[in-house]
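User: Hey, my collaborator sent me this sequence without any context and asked if I could get a structure. I don't really work with proteins. Can you help?
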Amino acid sequence: MIKNQIRRIVSCVFVATMPLLSVASGNGFAVFVDSASYANARAEIEQYAASVKDGGLDAKTIVLTPDVTPDSIRSIVRSMAEKPSGSIEGMVFIGDVPIAMVFDAQHLSSAFKPLQNYDRRPERSSCPTDRFYDDLSLDFKFMKRDDKKPLLYYYTLTADGSQTSAPKLYSGRIKSMDFYGRDKYENLRRYLRKVVGIKKRHEPFRSMLMFSGQGYNSESVMSRIDEIDALRESFPMFRDQRNAFTYIDHKNNPFVKYPVMGQLQRPDMSLALLHHHGSPVNEYMNRYPDPRGVRDQLGEARRYFRSKIRSGVENGQPLDTVVARYCRDFDVPDWWFKDVLSSESVKADSIYDDKVDLHIYDFGQFAPNSRVVMLDACYNGAYNNDEYIAGAYIFGDGDCVGAIANSVNSLQDKWCDKNIGLFALGMPLGKFVQHNPYLESHVIGDPTFAFVSPRKDIDAKALVDGTLSVKKLRRLMERDDNAAVRAAALDALAACGAIDNAGILDVFRNSGSATVRYHALWLLSEHRSPELVQAIKEGLGDSHEIIRRFSAIFAGKNGSPELVPALIAAYANRFVGERAYFQLQMAMPMFDRDVLLAELDKQRPYRYEVNEEEQMDKARELIATRYSDASFADDFKALAAEKPNSKEIKSLLRRLRNSNLHTRVDEILSFVANTDDDELRQTAIEALGWFTRSYKADDIIAAMEKIAGDSAMSERSRNEARKTVNRIKTTDI
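Assistant: No problem. I've predicted the 3D structure and written it out in structure-token form, which is a compact way to encode the shape of the chain:
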């Protein structure tokens, strides 16, 4: 029973309830802490709870005994959220609070799609997520507890709850670790004292750093230019203040981590948005520096060969054999490698490599002062590990109090910074993630932390929650000087049904703000409607790169033949931006080859080029072989084979998650209905669940509803069919 697992520190009542239908509004806040952390940092935890109360929330502290389970905590969260008065709006988990590791919810993530292995190394194929606690519309079934890491509990997402994430609550994690030469309890005490002290300063939003790492978003200069422009729309003060906005590209410095570290140490830095790749203990910031001359080119070539030769030797190959192969294949002299295994050479290259990226052990060399850090990278927020980068940020000596980070993979082309401009207007960190609720996204630190807004006429929290009057929301959307406010007001109007798709399309067409148009495009993407198709057509030619890019993405997700003329026109324009062009190339294979080729010949989009025929011939060849559904022709032969190859079919079906091949939906449905392999049937049904924006969605829903009600099908196939139906119906017209 819950009462045997929880020791109440303050007066509060826990009541078992039916599944959550709605969350009562209130100003409560829950502080969950494990008993050991509470015993070691009681004074600091109470001071932190008092600081939350000073911010206007009624904080209640709940101390968890060692045998508490995620299900028990979730029951408490539900009871506190459903109270008729004084209900909680959010929570924080301090110390070693149980971690839910979720299977079968990869559609709620942006990029996490590994083969799930429930028995062998389950930690690697499940996602650590606090959506388990803050999104009570989701339904989970307990599977098992980890044998080696008892803090980890494995769950599967069932078909009985929502198949999209829309939390009514927000959360944060303050999971300390042994680091900086201190044990985790000392780090916890220091952090809590720090966040309490910084809150007392009542700081306004002052400045921001944006960093662009190697390989990110195709290293598109155009995407970065337009992103900076959008940030200046969302933070109008950046147009006026000196040094308020700093941009660093990985190409600015051979070892760019050092200037980034320097900017992060600035005492006036409010927010750092870091775009790069990552792991639990690394921020991959740079590649080897671009050579500036012949000597640089020779040096990089030799460094490359030394790395390859050492790898060959480590794999058991004789040194002479490896050296001879590279000398022969690349026509280079063998004297280049005479010291390849010497301690001096190995050490020099190791030091060089160490300078390229930011590692967790670098955090002892600098103190991050940026109050908030957004780590737009994979795994930097993997709090299921003993050490993780996001923790290194907040537990350091600097003034960093919060990191927004991902516990697993993160897609490059996702909306990582929706509503970012509202930070300057007092939006708490927890609200940011609540309205960007990817399965992997988390606040590491205090979710109630907020900057003091200079505007008294705007309540950023009420704005994103949609609790302002429709009259005020309309006024803000139409007249406010801040694009971030106008965009958030548009979102809120759509959420309460005060503006329909036609109205949103009108905003998309007529707004002079890229930020507002981008919000409008996303709102339209939530429904399979004629307005979405029209917005995609126009968005492919928008003046802003991010809108062109996501119009291409949504075109591939929708697949309507009506989009073909706009796709061909955009494809012929190589100046849409590298990342947008990449997404066009990913979208076009979702369309019929013959239709694309006919439109190419009809438009003659290269008619103003001096080499039109050459361009047309090249485009015809690429569309006929790569950039149309013809590229899948050989793969689909596996579905119709007399002796199906299970491995090949599984590979194809998994590709369909990212590549919604609308032209082959009928073949996939036929396979689902006729295959004798129930495991392959389940895989195909799950893959169809990714066709949420497809113009063929109604056909999929009808077929899945039939399977869900077919008693001849296995329970797992029927369950998967129900999930697919629920997922696709979230984007009904």
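In plain terms: The first helix runs from residue 2 to 5. You can pass these tokens on to your collaborator as they are.
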